[in-house]
Design brief:
- The protein is built from 9 helices and 8 strands.
- The chain folds into 2 domains: 11-71, Arc Repressor Mutant, subunit A (Orthogonal Bundle); 76-254, GAF domain (Beta-Lactamase).
- The protein has helices at 11-24, 32-39, 43-55, 73-80, 82-102, 145-152, 156-169, 177-190, 237-254; strands at 59-62, 67-70, 106-112, 115-122, 138-140, 193-196, 203-211, 217-226.
- The chain is globular.
- It starts with 10 loop residues before the first helix and ends in a 7-residue tail after the last helix.
């Protein structure tokens, strides 16, 4: 966890948050020694905090592997947070119809701490070849579809904060701001991003923004499409983009967005 100057100190709370953030980056889990070594603390300092977090069900202990992992409690709490809860409630039935129409799985991606976070997904059940991304999965802002959309439709101040957080989380990477600027200008002009997946071969990602009452881009509606050698099996991209935009516009309206306001 990055050390920052703060007005007040709460060492126990800081240790607890450091443990949670560490395990969030380590889905395979860590034992007590690995946690203390990673945080530069003694086992005695860490033991009581880990025990309390486990008792409060923020952590789970896996006896066979002797490791601690994050539980889903934080995930459940996040989904009770009013803006997220409202977005999911509004979008869920509308995206279900979209999935049936385009015969693809769809995802909602939101900005979180310098990157994109997969908030939820809807499957198209009858097509086993649809690609589903894991809820809670994260991606960088700079080289993927959802990140490009989030940057393109952010206000200047929000974009600056997003890029600053991204750089703080990835100090080893350099940003080509001119190249990024060209990307977000293109995405904003066309109203969507469509690009090959930076992670998976043979996958094409398409994303469009969802806006709220204040004209903030609060989420990206994303679908990831498998590409086949037999082109007759490929999705009609123009149709998919059209339906994504229609759906995102409808969700935005339900969120209070008014283009003319």
């Amino acid at each position: 966890m990055t050390e920052k100057e703060t007005k007040y100190k709460a060492p126990a709370l800081e240790k607890g948050m450091a443990i949670i953030e560490l395990l969030a980056r380590t889905p395979e889990g860590l034992n007590l020694t690995q946690i203390s070594d990673s945080l530069g603390k003694s086992k005695a300092e860490i033991f009581r905090m880990v025990a309390v977090l486990n008792d409060l069900h923020y952590l789970e202990f896996f006896q066979t592997e002797r490791v601690y992992r994050l539980s889903l409690k934080l995930y459940r709490l996040t989904h009770r947070y009013a803006p997220v809860h409202h977005l999911n409630n509004v979008a869920f039935p509308i995206i279900q119809e979209l999935c049936s129409d385009i015969q693809q799985s769809c995802h909602l991606v939101v900005y979180s701490d310098g990157g994109g976070l997969i908030l939820s997904h809807q499957d198209y059940d009858t097509n086993s070849n649809c690609l589903t991304l894991p809820v809670g999965g994260r991606g960088p802002l700079t080289d993927n579809c959802a990140g490009h959309v989030l940057l393109a439709f952010a206000s200047y101040d929000n974009r600056e904060r997003m890029l600053k957080a991204y750089q703080e989380n990835h100090p080893e990477l350099s940003l080509d701001l001119m190249a990024l600027r060209n990307i977000w200008l293109r995405v904003k002009e066309q109203g969507h991003e469509a690009m090959p997946s930076p992670v998976l071969a043979g996958v094409y990602d398409i994303g469009v923004p969802i806006f709220d009452y204040y004209h903030n881009a609060v989420a990206v509606l994303l679908t990831s499409i498998l590409m086949y050698r037999d082109e007759s099996r490929n999705a009609d991209f123009e149709h998919v983009i059209k339906k994504l935009k229609e759906t995102s516009h409808l969700i935005s309206q339900k969120m209070g967005f008014d283009e003319e306001a």
